[in-house]
Design brief:
One of its GO terms (molecular function) is protein serine/threonine kinase activity. Keywords: Kinase, Serine/threonine-protein kinase, Signal, Transferase. The structure is a single chain. The chain has a five-stranded mixed β-sheet. Strands 4-1-5 form a three-stranded parallel β-sheet, sandwiched between helices. Strands 2-3 form a two-stranded antiparallel sheet. The protein is 44% helix and 24% strand. The chain is of the alpha/beta class. The longest helix has 21 residues. The chain has eleven helices and twelve strands. It folds into two domains: 144 residues, D-Maltodextrin-Binding Protein, domain 2, CATH 3.40.190; 103 residues, D-Maltodextrin-Binding Protein, domain 2.
Length: 286
């Protein structure tokens, strides 16, 4: 009898945990906020170096945090609305789950981080205008021979496994490389790009394709990583995502287009969180 009670209790605990993890994210609509002059919104994310990360005090910082703080100030000044924001880390800090939680969210829900704007994603989400260009980098362990041209990938990376995040544009890039240069490429999945970098730093038989801030963060931490210029790309732009039911998108676009993006406050935020090495890297591929 005791075993049955224990099993039943465990099942209930797991069920409650599952409901909690998969609970729908909800925030107030802009239309409601205009009347009440207050809004509760949710910012969900997967931690991304430079863009949104934990501080020693237990709060969050980064480019996205500062941008949304400025947006809240803009909303207060223009509409008299006081915004109360809740930061919600994605389940297991998983990028794919973060995307899914925004897609199923209702009202004032925003997804923050290194989210590439694509035509396919525009069908599923409302996007802000782009707030920064991305550079994706091909990264391996330091001990791996330098890849000087993509046509040599199958030879130089023979026997190596690619690690990426499901549902990311980085995954799409790997499949493009597999078709064009490396038919025998083995592709494995991790929950976050930080996990991919950890794999590469620990194992010379792995490689990954990550956004530039992950690589710079690893270099700063003196991890055993190396970038291969042949696999670099600067064709992506990052934006903030919202569910299709979110009516804040035009307001966020107005804020971005008001002169904030590219302005002095914006430049200060970018320099503060990315540092000079990131600025130089971004400028080197323009």
């Amino acid at each position: 009898m005791k075993n049955r009670i224990l099993k039943f209790s465990l099942a209930i605990t797991l069920l409650i945990g599952s409901i909690s993890v998969n609970a729908q994210l909800k925030g107030d609509s802009f239309e409601t906020a205009k009347v009440s002059k207050k809004a509760n919104v949710v910012y969900t994310f997967s931690k991304t170096p430079g863009f949104i990360y934990s501080t020693s005090g237990g709060s969050y910082a980064g480019i996205c945090v500062d941008i949304m703080s400025k947006f809240e100030q803009y909303i207060k000044a223009k509409y008299g609305i006081t915004v109360s924001a809740k930061y919600q880390l994605a389940s297991d800090d998983n990028f794919t789950r973060m995307l899914a939680s925004v897609k199923s969210g209702k009202g004032g829900v925003f997804g923050l981080g290194n989210i590439t704007i694509t035509n396919s994603r525009k069908k599923m989400y409302n996007f802000s205008p782009p707030f920064i260009n991305n550079i994706s980098l091909l990264v391996t362990n330091k001990s791996v021979t330098t890849l000087t041209k993509m046509e040599d990938m199958a030879t130089v990376f023979k026997g190596m496994t690619a690690y990426t995040v499901k549902g990311s544009t980085n995954e799409i890039e790997f499949y493009r490389w597999k078709k064009a240069y490396f038919p025998e490429m083995k592709i494995a999945y991790v929950g976050s790009f930080s996990d991919a970098v950890n794999k590469v730093a620990a194992d010379s038989k792995t490689f990954t394709n990550v956004d530039f801030t992950y690589y710079l963060d690893a270099v700063k931490a003196k991890r055993s990583v190396k970038r291969h210029v042949a696999g670099s790309s600067n064709s992506e732009e990052f934006g903030i995502i919202m569910p299709k039911s979110n009516d804040w998108a035009p307001v966020l676009a107005d804020f971005f287009n008001s002169g904030f993006i590219g302005g002095d406050e914006y430049k200060t935020i970018i320099r503060k969180h990315l540092g000079e090495s990131a600025i130089k890297l971004l400028e080197s591929v323009k």
